Amino acid sequence: MQRDIFPYPMLKIGIIGGGQLGKMMSQIAKQMGFYVAVLDPTPNCPAAHVADVQIVGGLYEADKIQALAACCDVLTFEVEHIDTATLKSLAAEGKHIFPSPELLEIIQDKLLQKQALEQHGVPVAPCLPFDEITAANIAKLSFPVVQKARKGGYDGKGVQILRSAADFENALPQPFYLEEFIPFEKELAVMVARDQHGKIACYPVVEMLFDDKTNICDIVAAPANISPELTEQAKQVAIHAIEALNGVGIFGVEMFLTPDGKVLVNEIAPRPHNSGHYTIEACITCQYEQLIRVVAGLPLGATTLLMPAVMLNLLGEAGYSGEPLIEGLHEALAIEGLAFHLYGKPSTQPFRKMGHITIVDKDLSQAMEKMHRIKNRLKIKAKEGTA
Length: 387
What we know:
- There is one protein chain.
- By secondary structure, this protein is of the alpha+beta class.
- The protein is 26% helix and 27% strand.
- It folds into three domains: 86 residues, Rossmann fold; 55 residues, Dna Ligase, domain 1; 197 residues, D-amino Acid Aminotransferase, Chain A, domain 1 (2-Layer Sandwich), CATH 3.30.470.20.
């Protein structure tokens, strides 16, 4: 789908999902002059603040997805938990969808994702299908193991460590698989863009730090504090993974760095990713523009890191629900190099992603120091009532 000359109006882009990722995708698409329609079940969702139109409907409602397709030239998505059967039917009719529904179907099931990567020689943690919890099956295990839901997990949900057979009493209720526990040194991530012709643009390797209580990504530091050799290894592993899956779009490749210097793929997000928010301020082409370029058949943009950066997720404070109230914003914006992003969600809940900040600085350690200075002062509470 290569176009050398765009008609006016330009391509009509449909985005399935209208949360914060859809909003940031819409902002870039509108900046570039595209028409944007979003599908989301929540009226006036964050992306609706920016898009030309919102179709209110569920992400598994076939008629709503078809309505989005009918008013757009190309479809993409901000969330992987969507109806692939309808998308496959649309693709068979000639609708352009990136990434492809077939790839999305593999990504949706984390066991299939792991098996597909392993079949192509991409290094992953050893995993084991586990269809039935029986004494005999449990006896075969070496603890600890990581239990992961095959479908539907996000933001720390659907993952838990089982340290003994007794932990199976609180096993995840949905279909799951088991993975060898990896005593990693760091959690790394790389955003990889791949266009419709197979060209690759790889972003810097970043380090992700997770909150112990919520298991939600707390901080992203770019670049990761690792050797040039490990940086190159991580990039090559990430590129290999996306090429192996024949991915077209933007992908967040999460990885473990083991004590013996190996890089293993943890999982892949087939969309813009939390670990790539920093690219808005810190890279020549941000992850959102890169995706819009891919779906529009435009050349990939440069991924050069202009300045080191630290990103901090802003989660709803524990004990607060309702209309958001932001504390510490004046103090935060007084910090040189700080950019503030609020997603426009009408209500906050404990640990809900409400926004993020990015701090850029010529010295990564200085950016980290600034982030720690403001982390416990910038809070998302609620105007009325508590949870």
